[in-house]
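pipeline/complex-builder :: batch 7 item 3
reading input block
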Amino acid sequence: MSPTIPTPANFELHKQLAADTIEVDRWDCCRVLLMNDAAYPWLILVPQRPGVCELHKLSAEDLALTTAEIVRASEAMERLFQPVKMNVAALGNMVPQLHIHVIARFEDDPAWPQPVWGVGPAVPYGAGELAARVEALRGAFSH
Amino acid sequence: MSPTIPTPANFELHKQLAADTIEVDRWDCCRVLLMNDAAYPWLILVPQRPGVCELHKLSAEDLALTTAEIVRASEAMERLFQPVKMNVAALGNMVPQLHIHVIARFEDDPAWPQPVWGVGPAVPYGAGELAARVEALRGAFSH
């Protein structure tokens, strides 16, 4: 679970991402964050590469790592939550630091079948609920 | 420009994607479609693999091809349109066939800074405008 490639010392998580999420894990390329919104199982992967704002600006090696980590996150979410669809997106119109949303979607979630962005304010997890979800995700990642 | 890996004979483009787009090119993995919405430079890449609905269900080889093709599409759009941001997303809540949106975004586009989905009806290209855009994209791809 611990990264084999050290995080560059000058990598700093964008303050908006830090405010909206809880850190779940650190992988070879990406930091794995849980969006603090109980309405959707919603991870955010942030390649720990200072100054990178677009997927196509990652080095070929980092892009391959990031892609593998998107697959790892998607497979873990699928095992854990049995969603009807995974949504994967790198948008970044408001937070320029490259980050990839990996969201498990259900036909009874508040936004279905629309995308999740801009659909009401986030519903923060309760403390116990949050600890349980982080624990469950870590367990699914280590499968 | 012509695919080196033949498209499986049983691949059929989803009828909604066929209705909403114009084919621009066929690459090793993906069919390259232009969304018929003049409000945004908007490509859709569709891996020509029958029955695949999720990025993480592609074979490792096809996922690497698709990722490289997302980069190729993004770089061409960036050269051609100089957007402030590229948006890349695989959602598929309404059209299950795996397809990846690659959209050039601008601070004066109708949805900025929100995502483009669900913001008003598509604005179809005029005939001359459409031909010029397809031509420009093909030129940028062959760079």
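note: DSSP finds three helices and five strands in chain A.
queue -> next item
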